[in-house]
Amino acid sequence: MPKRRRGSRSARSRIAPLPARHRRFEDLVDEALAGIPMPFAAALDEVAIVIEDEPTAEQLGNDVESGETLYGIYEGVPRTEWGADWVSMPNRITLFRLPLEADFADPDDLADEVWLTVVHELAHHLGIDDERLHELGVD
């Protein structure tokens, strides 16, 4: 059966454009990713970068106290724990737009925190824990 295009060729797209605020946040994430040096930047090929408005209750889990939130989270298997006989699981870094924007109203501060959050979560993918990140000043 031949494939046919659905809908009118002259109809406007049903996908609503992102608000300028969302585009700006995506630009900050793109800038942060572009600023990661090699060889660490190569590890970005192994993770999906996702932007969500807020963390889910499951993502908050039991580690986040009441009144606190997350700016980002790494979900997956760190490189240091990969095994040759393991089935690869999708690795993902999720950045949470609303908490970041709420806590960092200044555009420069927001850009800095987005970069720091990306680096922090990528470090988890590389097997670096919070204690070591604190020692390195990336917290």
What does this structure look like?
The chain is of the alpha+beta class. Strands 1-3-2 form a 3-stranded mixed beta sheet. 37% of the residues lie in helices and 12% in strands. The termini are far apart. It is globular.
What structural keywords apply?
3-stranded mixed beta sheet; 139 residues; alpha+beta; single chain; 3 strands; globular
One letter per element, helices H and strands E, the order comes to HEHEEHHH
Unreliable residue stretches: 1-16
Average pLDDT confidence is 80
Strands of the largest sheet, in order across it? 1-3-2
The main sheet comes to: 3 strands, mixed
- Helix/strand-derived class? alpha+beta
Report the helical percentage: 25-40%
Report the count of strand segments. 3
- Rounded Rg: 18 Å
> How much of the residues is beta strand, in percent?
5-15%
Brief account:
The protein is 37% helix and 12% strand.
Strand and helix map with partners:
Elements: H1 20-34, E1 47-52, H2 57-60, E2 72-75, E3 91-96, H3 97-103, H4 107-125, H5 130-136
Parallel strand pairs: 1-3
Antiparallel strand pairs: 2-3
Helix pairs in contact: 1-4
